[in-house]
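<instruction>
Derive structure tokens from the sequence
<entry> Chain with its tokenised backbone below:
===
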Amino acid sequence: MATRKTPKRSSKTVRPAAGYARRKTADTAAPPAAAEPITAPVAEAAPAPVVAPTPIAAPAPIAKAAPAPVAEHLVPPPPVASAPPPAMAGVASAMASLAALDDALAALDIASFAELPTPTEIDDGAPDDDLLPPGHVPPGDVRSLRRADSGEFALVYRWATAVVIRRGPVGKRGTCRVIDYPTPQMASSGYARECTRLHAEGFGDYVD
């Protein structure tokens, strides 16, 4: 059995390789002290500019309206003449025509009847009393008659259920007769008979 030889230890100092030495130094070296954080100097904020307050204009004073003077005595304005409307102008023209007709009738010495008298309103005077003869009469059951050869007049009209007959010389009252009938229809028939009888005697309708 071979005897194992113990190697001799050299007295030379074995230097480690450079790479190893640096790695060992880096690994074994004490860690560097932590660097203190560098605080950047804080710049002081510039003071805000002072803005001068804008003066507020005072509102203009509101002028108070002076009160209107109160008149002690109010005088109405004078009326302004204006032309009448067409309807009123027609009425005025008709009234003027009626007035002219009345003047013409008065000149002819006749009596026109706008409304005939009722049987109770007939004035019973003397037949020879002076009285204008009847002239124009309103429309309806009424006739104004004249007889030229004798100068007589006759007025015949129906009033409700009565027939009135007035006749006599022109310019005199004449006589008046009233005939009452039971109904208006019978009075109309009686009125027609009286007109027929007077026409047979020579009376005709009055004309201007």
In short: Residues 104-108 have pLDDT under 50 and may be disordered.
